[in-house]
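Below is just one:
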Amino acid sequence: MHHTYPYDLFISHAVEDKIPLVNELAARLEAEGIKVWYTGQELSIGDVVCDALVAGMQRCRYGIVIVSPSYISKLIPSPEFNTLLGYKRNDEKVIIPILFEVTQDQLVAKHILPEGTDAIYSNAGLDAVVNQLRQQMGAIGNMPSRKSTSILQKLASPGNKLYAALLFVIGLILMLYGFSVLLA
């Protein structure tokens, strides 16, 4: 039976990692056309957090776990993490760990992840994380095609400020030229 999921990717993380990593990672994934579910967007006041997270995982094709020192400190009482670790569909791997400020050796020593578990390291930068996620998710199932990005979206991205300023100046020059032609 083929199931359609409203989201492509569930992100499990500690709240302390939201600002330094998760918000930007989610934005970059969404810019790639990947529909993301994470607490920064989907939880509402009054939601029972654990219930909402489990429901969120069930609405997503795949999940990632941002494993960090903050996340590890909260693991013991975490039914979410235990659910994630055992989460498979038709014997298909659907959870991808992303290591943030921890090493795989540390996690193996603490019996958090089994030795040899495939993981993505965030220390290579978010572009590398997004590329590796696309590769791994593509290898374990069909990924959505990259969403086409409008020129305005490209201009609004933080890395394109110079390009946006240049286009603004060109537009301003053309507008002034148009006014000068009308006034002449």
Q: What stands out?
A: The radius of gyration is 21 Å. Strands lie at 7-12, 36-37, 60-67, 88-89, 92-93, 95-99, 120-121. The first helix runs from residue 18 to 31.
